[in-house]
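call fold(seq) -> tokens
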Amino acid sequence: MKILALGCSSGSGLHFAQTAIEDEHEIISVSRTKPDCDVLRHYECDLMNAESVRETIMFLKGGYDGAVFYQRGRNREDDQWDNEIQVGLNATREFIRNITWNGGSSIVVIGSLAGSHAVFEQDDGYHVAKAGMLALVKFYALKYGKKGVQVNMVSPGEVATQGWIKDNPKLDDFCSTIIPLGETGDSTDITEVVMFLLEGGGYITGQEIVVDGGLSVIGQGSLMHKFGREQWMK
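ret:
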């Protein structure tokens, strides 16, 4: 497969690119820095800059079997709202609507539970961008469906590869006690779902697939009771 990959120069995005290449897929990367893996081609693009996005799309043209959007805004306090909306929402829209996709293509957008839940650790721009990206997924799933193009979102929960969990064994243990599957996930868990969707994905389009070990299905009251009993009612 010829896969267009945005924002895959680090973290879970890089893990995806490395795995896809190992599986003999061709990766065309778009980001500010080239991923540390053997991509077929790399296009340097500042997704924060609308003109840079348009110029990159002109070079890319089309003929892709799939795409994955891992990019997110950079932490810049001066213009965080514009940053998140441009990088997360506007750039995703421009690439999806202006690239020519092969019939049978699969497009996967990486979302977040912040698109449907309020979280303390992210700002309002991040929330709105992720919610808007899910709306884009549904719109283009409908628009491109007759062409055989599937469009879906994968929304990860907290993963052990994130420093604030990985560097704190006690926190990792705590997360494992409240996650229904009994352990924190990692980049492999996300990549497996993304690859499933890219390689066919069955009869699925316009959907958000949450990869969080079942944490988001727990009612808040139940979680509070469980935590209270285990921590303060001994």
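The longest helix spans residues 124-144.
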